[in-house]
């Protein structure tokens, strides 16, 4: 993309933007929560819509001049409802955390009990973790995964729900490599009279493309970011049954935020239109196929995969058997052009800022058009870098060679939007 006006006004920032474009183009992006947006989504994000304040909702605003904005937001809402098959959608939340906070405001009072997956097991900060406002202002109950399988123990979830009677139960998270059993969570929520909130931020694109079961018909409210697998801008949505529409809308505005970011709303609308195509469905299924191929390659090379593999876009690896920590491994891989993030694994004995694992995912590489053959090559590169790091032998030489080979691969698969 050209940034002529930016370059003229602020050459320093323009050069940094250009540097980031080059970095993204030359990197195999394996961070599970990242993706590439299309040029159309990118263009919608950078429009004059950012100039307009629009507190309220379509037809009920607190500022004049909403003739166009109302139409844009209505299009986004209707596309979300059609794509996910929901009765109500709110496209105004600024990001995933504020969207989840709106659920608390809609259904809970301070001190009420909320139940979610613990952060070390793959949950999210806003599901009641101690350092989050959700863990400080509410009474959190946390479930985890079994040590022997790395999967959620639904019997434990039921026992905890019966004991603590939470008012809201969250399912979903940030490092869950297996299919979320929405019907089982819904059954438990109904039994204890809780609202079931499905956080599908990571898997929304897979759900939209038919590559993961949907929580619709099971969860009372659904929260999601609009980037990650959905390939939209940095924003969020809340979806629900018609019964909870008024409470959700009131919690978002005026409960938590003022005017929506209209340029983001437009970009969400574009992304939702793209997600309704056959091409997107093929992409969603290829994301899963690529993740399975990469997981199989890594497992064959002796990597310890949490839960033994993946059903979706995400792989979580415990590097303890390799004799390497997650943080130095992620840093070495980054220098080799393989972008990952270090991550805690279930029952991790190391500190969160220096954990045992790394988390990887396939949305971005799939958006570039890569397939199973490229996943096997990526798995081999990861093994080479981690092995060199563990042996403390020829580390920088290995990193330099792998980065050169990575650059050859990325040159063959141009990144969308860049």
TrEMBL record:
Domain Serine hydroxymethyltransferase-like as annotated: residue spans: 7-382
CC cofactor: pyridoxal 5'-phosphate
GO process terms (BP): glycine biosynthetic process from serine; methylation; tetrahydrofolate interconversion
N6-(pyridoxal phosphate)lysine: residues bearing it: 228
Keyword vocabulary terms for this entry: Amino-acid biosynthesis, Cytoplasm, Methyltransferase, One-carbon metabolism, Pyridoxal phosphate, Transferase
EC number(s) per entry: 2.1.2.1
Site, Plays an important role in substrate specificity: residue positions: 227
HAMAP family the record matches: SHMT
Protein name as it appears in the record: Serine hydroxymethyltransferase
Organism listed in the record: Bailinhaonella thermotolerans
